[in-house]
Amino acid sequence: MPEHTDVLIIGGGFIGLSSAYYLNRAGCSVRIVEQDTVGSGASHGNCGMVCPSHAPPLTQPGAVATALKWMLKPDAPFFVRPTLNLRTISWLLHFAARCDAERMRPAMVARAEILRSSRVAYDAFIEAEDLVAAVEWLPVGALFVCREAATMDQCAHYFGLVAEFDVNAESLAGAELAAREPALRDDVAGAWYVGLDAHLRPDRLLREWHRVNLERGVIVSENSAVSAIHEDGDKITGVSTSSGSYTADAVVVATGAWSSQLAGMFHTQIPIEPGKGYSITTTRPQPSPVHPCAFQERRCIATPFQSGYRLGGTMEFSGFDPRLRQNRIDAIRRSAAEYLKEPEGDTVEELWYGWRPMTYDGVPIIGPLPRHRNAYIAAGHNMLGLSMATGTGKLISELLTGAEPHIDPRPYSADRF
């Protein structure tokens, strides 16, 4: 295999795979180097939603007060382990400073733009590669389910915000909701239905995207952790990895939650913190939900796949803690039982955790890195890496090849920090 390519992508998750796909289509030769195996990070165990409905970031008014209240419960949806790590403390302070309506709005606009772009691009990508069945693509919408009437009112405000981005929601309750989603318990207050959202099975998408890229000529080097970059002035000429050295005309950092660990090599700051999440994959319960269901009071999600079923949730800031905490798994199960007649299937197929790449403003970092004229970053997608993958891959390809960007790249610039 050639050691030199036009573009070298560091990271083999959804963002790396998508960037490779669109760069390859633009005529570039591409190599992906992945420290483990393709899709082994947060891409593997997420809930599989492609959701323009999730435009508002976590930095919403009242988020700090809610987080402080949850801090008193070790199994709450949000948890921060006490730390003396100055980088983490700085990140948390910057996050808190953005939890007001005025500073939230630019982040919401930026997220809405790339989420909508990605939703359209997924339709085109899945049709072009004939992947509907292979990835279990189901554009059937999603439900935001509320146990309490007060939460239904809060969601009304939320969907008032996203309506300006052509994301429309329908309020359902009683017999109408039961007919739309029979798997829900009869005592939930109601739900909001968003028809634009879609879902798929993430591990199947990873497998198929990897296959398509290989068939198109993308080179993939797994078990290749980057140990050094090679520079010539303000240009990167290549990288050294545990599997060898590779050269390229341009480099893309798509390493998710691990991106801040590479910051020193690139002589810059990448303010991304790992936000640990958990999921439970089982056989389909009976009855199984028809739609993905986001349980609003408990901040967890149930996603039905054609070949299985997944519960996921929680946000835990505890660094790269490698332990699967049973109290988190139990909390997700209890939460689902408050909303669904049958919260999970009979057979557990996988208990999983992974680290989402969290920026403190909720917006991904996509574009040039400041110290090198041929280095780019595509990371920090928070909990929406799958949802934003196609739009990100297209934008990275456009920036590297000089094509007209399909969306304004400025809100995602690394220079904003």
Separate helix tally: 9
Strand residues, percent: 25-35%
| Termini gap | 39 Å
**What's the CATH H-level homologous superfamily of the largest domain?**
D-Amino Acid Oxidase, subunit A, domain 2
Q: What number is the mean pLDDT?
A: 95
Describe the structure.
The structure is a single chain. This protein is α/β, with parallel strands linked by helices. The protein folds into 2 domains: 162 residues, FAD/NAD(P)-binding domain (3-Layer(bba) Sandwich); 194 residues, D-Amino Acid Oxidase, Chain A, domain 2 (2-Layer Sandwich), CATH 3.30.9. It is built from 9 helices and 19 strands. Strands 4, 5, 6, 7, 13, 14, 15, 16 and 17 form a 9-stranded mixed beta sheet that branches. Strands 1, 2, 9, 10, 11, 12, 18 and 19 form an 8-stranded mixed beta sheet that branches. It has a two-stranded antiparallel ribbon with strand order 3-8.
Sum up the structure in keywords.
D-Amino Acid Oxidase, Chain A, domain 2, 8-stranded mixed sheet, 30% helix, 19 strands, 417 residues, alpha/beta, FAD/NAD(P)-binding domain, 2 domains, 9-stranded mixed sheet, single chain, 9 helices, globular
In short:
With 417 residues, this protein is α/β, with parallel strands linked by helices. The protein has helices at residues 14-25, 63-70, 86-97, 101-128, 149-162, 174-180, 202-216, 326-337, 385-401; strands spanning 4-10, 30-33, 49-50, 78-80, 142-146, 169-172, 190-194, 198-199, 219-221, 226-232, 235-241, 244-253, 272-282, 293-295, 300-305, 308-317, 348-359, 365-368, 375-379.
